[in-house]
Amino acid sequence: MAILAFTNARICRHGALFPPSPLYFDNADGLIVVPPPDTTEVETIDLQNRILAPAFLELQTNGCVGVHFTNHSSDEEYVENLEKVSRWMVTKGVGGWWATVPTVEKDVYRKVLPLLKPRTFNNGAALLGAHCEGPFLNPSKKGAHSTSTQGHLHPITHPP
Predict the structure, then answer these.
(1) Is 157 left (phi over 0), alpha (psi -120 to 50) or beta?
(2) What mean pLDDT comes out for the span 106-129?
(3) For residue range 14-34, what is the model confidence (pLDDT) as tens digits?
(4) How far apart are the first and last CA of the chain?
(5) What are the backbone dihedrals phi and psi of residue 120, each rounded to the nearest 5 degrees, phi first?
(6) Handedness of CA 52, 123, 61, 102 (dihedral sign)
(7) DSSP line for 76-145
(8) Which pLDDT tens digit goes with each residue over 43-68?
(9) Which of 110, 109, 111, 129 is nearest to 119 (CA)?
Protein backbone atom coordinates (compact mmCIF):
# COMPACT_ATOMS: atom_id res chain seq x y z
CA MET A 1 0.00 0.00 0.00
CA ALA A 2 1.45 3.40 -1.06
CA ILE A 3 0.79 6.03 1.59
CA LEU A 4 0.93 9.79 1.17
CA ALA A 5 1.21 12.12 4.18
CA PHE A 6 0.41 15.82 4.20
CA THR A 7 2.41 17.34 7.05
CA ASN A 8 2.31 20.78 8.70
CA ALA A 9 -1.27 21.27 7.54
CA ARG A 10 -3.93 23.13 9.48
CA ILE A 11 -6.90 20.83 8.98
CA CYS A 12 -10.41 22.18 8.70
CA ARG A 13 -13.04 19.97 10.34
CA HIS A 14 -16.64 21.07 10.80
CA GLY A 15 -15.66 24.68 10.13
CA ALA A 16 -12.88 24.81 12.74
CA LEU A 17 -9.13 24.89 12.12
CA PHE A 18 -6.96 22.49 14.09
CA PRO A 19 -3.23 22.85 14.81
CA PRO A 20 -0.87 21.38 12.20
CA SER A 21 -0.81 17.60 12.16
CA PRO A 22 -0.08 14.97 9.50
CA LEU A 23 -2.92 13.49 7.45
CA TYR A 24 -2.35 10.13 5.75
CA PHE A 25 -3.93 8.91 2.49
CA ASP A 26 -3.87 5.58 0.71
CA ASN A 27 -2.77 6.46 -2.85
CA ALA A 28 -4.56 3.43 -4.27
CA ASP A 29 -8.08 4.49 -3.28
CA GLY A 30 -7.70 8.07 -1.99
CA LEU A 31 -9.06 7.24 1.45
CA ILE A 32 -7.79 8.76 4.67
CA VAL A 33 -5.98 6.10 6.71
CA VAL A 34 -4.37 5.77 10.13
CA PRO A 35 -0.61 6.36 10.20
CA PRO A 36 1.25 3.17 9.32
CA PRO A 37 3.54 1.69 12.00
CA ASP A 38 6.58 2.27 9.75
CA THR A 39 6.53 5.71 8.10
CA THR A 40 9.87 5.33 6.31
CA GLU A 41 8.09 4.38 3.05
CA VAL A 42 5.55 7.21 3.28
CA GLU A 43 5.73 9.97 0.65
CA THR A 44 5.51 13.30 2.48
CA ILE A 45 4.28 16.68 1.26
CA ASP A 46 4.97 19.61 3.60
CA LEU A 47 2.05 22.05 3.37
CA GLN A 48 3.98 24.71 5.34
CA ASN A 49 1.10 25.67 7.65
CA ARG A 50 -1.43 25.95 4.80
CA ILE A 51 -5.06 25.01 5.35
CA LEU A 52 -6.23 21.61 4.16
CA ALA A 53 -9.99 21.65 3.63
CA PRO A 54 -12.60 20.13 1.32
CA ALA A 55 -13.48 22.34 -1.66
CA PHE A 56 -15.44 22.42 -4.90
CA LEU A 57 -13.92 22.52 -8.39
CA GLU A 58 -15.55 25.01 -10.78
CA LEU A 59 -15.43 23.44 -14.23
CA GLN A 60 -16.90 26.19 -16.38
CA THR A 61 -17.28 29.89 -15.82
CA ASN A 62 -17.08 32.58 -18.49
CA GLY A 63 -16.52 35.16 -15.77
CA CYS A 64 -18.01 36.66 -12.62
CA VAL A 65 -17.77 39.68 -10.32
CA GLY A 66 -17.66 42.00 -13.34
CA VAL A 67 -14.89 40.08 -15.11
CA HIS A 68 -15.30 38.26 -18.45
CA PHE A 69 -12.38 36.12 -19.57
CA THR A 70 -12.49 37.38 -23.16
CA ASN A 71 -11.98 41.01 -22.09
CA HIS A 72 -8.28 41.91 -22.31
CA SER A 73 -6.90 45.43 -22.20
CA SER A 74 -3.48 44.66 -20.68
CA ASP A 75 -1.76 41.60 -19.26
CA GLU A 76 -1.38 43.29 -15.87
CA GLU A 77 -5.07 44.18 -15.58
CA TYR A 78 -6.09 40.73 -16.84
CA VAL A 79 -4.05 38.97 -14.13
CA GLU A 80 -5.44 41.37 -11.50
CA ASN A 81 -8.94 40.39 -12.65
CA LEU A 82 -8.04 36.69 -12.42
CA GLU A 83 -6.97 37.29 -8.83
CA LYS A 84 -10.25 39.14 -8.14
CA VAL A 85 -12.19 36.13 -9.45
CA SER A 86 -9.96 33.75 -7.47
CA ARG A 87 -10.59 35.59 -4.20
CA TRP A 88 -14.36 35.58 -4.85
CA MET A 89 -14.41 31.87 -5.82
CA VAL A 90 -12.84 30.79 -2.54
CA THR A 91 -15.61 32.57 -0.60
CA LYS A 92 -18.05 30.19 -2.31
CA GLY A 93 -16.13 27.06 -1.28
CA VAL A 94 -14.26 26.68 -4.57
CA GLY A 95 -10.68 25.48 -4.27
CA GLY A 96 -9.83 25.35 -7.97
CA TRP A 97 -11.37 26.59 -11.21
CA TRP A 98 -11.01 26.69 -14.98
CA ALA A 99 -11.66 29.91 -16.91
CA THR A 100 -13.96 29.32 -19.88
CA VAL A 101 -13.20 31.12 -23.12
CA PRO A 102 -16.04 30.86 -25.65
CA THR A 103 -15.45 30.82 -29.39
CA VAL A 104 -13.80 34.17 -30.13
CA GLU A 105 -11.48 35.74 -32.68
CA LYS A 106 -7.99 34.22 -32.90
CA ASP A 107 -6.29 37.35 -31.53
CA VAL A 108 -8.30 37.02 -28.29
CA TYR A 109 -7.09 33.43 -27.83
CA ARG A 110 -3.50 34.59 -28.44
CA LYS A 111 -3.79 37.24 -25.74
CA VAL A 112 -5.68 35.41 -23.01
CA LEU A 113 -4.71 31.73 -23.19
CA PRO A 114 -1.07 32.28 -22.09
CA LEU A 115 -2.40 34.19 -19.05
CA LEU A 116 -4.77 31.35 -18.12
CA LYS A 117 -1.97 28.93 -17.26
CA PRO A 118 -2.36 27.18 -13.91
CA ARG A 119 -1.43 29.47 -11.02
CA THR A 120 -2.21 30.14 -7.40
CA PHE A 121 -3.23 33.40 -5.75
CA ASN A 122 -2.83 34.37 -2.10
CA ASN A 123 -6.14 33.94 -0.30
CA GLY A 124 -7.86 32.62 -3.39
CA ALA A 125 -8.85 29.52 -5.31
CA ALA A 126 -6.27 28.06 -7.70
CA LEU A 127 -6.67 28.75 -11.42
CA LEU A 128 -6.31 25.29 -12.96
CA GLY A 129 -6.21 26.39 -16.60
CA ALA A 130 -8.55 27.25 -19.45
CA HIS A 131 -11.61 25.55 -20.88
CA CYS A 132 -12.03 26.56 -24.53
CA GLU A 133 -15.43 26.29 -26.16
CA GLY A 134 -14.44 25.87 -29.75
CA PRO A 135 -13.44 27.10 -32.20
CA PHE A 136 -13.97 23.64 -33.69
CA LEU A 137 -17.67 22.97 -33.16
CA ASN A 138 -20.12 20.98 -35.24
CA PRO A 139 -21.76 23.72 -37.36
CA SER A 140 -25.18 22.15 -36.83
CA LYS A 141 -24.69 22.18 -33.03
CA LYS A 142 -22.92 25.51 -32.52
CA GLY A 143 -25.64 27.01 -30.33
CA ALA A 144 -25.00 30.70 -29.66
CA HIS A 145 -21.44 30.58 -31.03
CA SER A 146 -20.87 32.91 -33.98
CA THR A 147 -20.27 31.25 -37.33
CA SER A 148 -17.61 33.88 -38.12
CA THR A 149 -15.35 32.60 -35.33
CA GLN A 150 -15.70 28.91 -36.14
CA GLY A 151 -12.55 27.06 -37.09
CA HIS A 152 -12.49 24.72 -40.03
CA LEU A 153 -10.98 21.27 -39.92
CA HIS A 154 -9.70 19.81 -43.13
CA PRO A 155 -9.81 16.05 -43.70
CA ILE A 156 -6.49 14.30 -43.48
CA THR A 157 -5.71 12.42 -46.64
CA HIS A 158 -3.40 9.48 -46.57
CA PRO A 159 -1.25 8.57 -49.54
CA PRO A 160 -2.47 5.45 -51.38
Answers:
(1) beta
(2) 93
(3) 878 888 888 999 988 889 999
(4) 52
(5) -115, 155
(6) negative
(7) HHHHHHHHHHHHHHHHTTEEEEEEEE-S--HHHHHHHGGGGSSB--TTSPEEEEEEE--SS--GGG-TTS
(8) 999 999 888 888 899 999 999 999 99
(9) 129
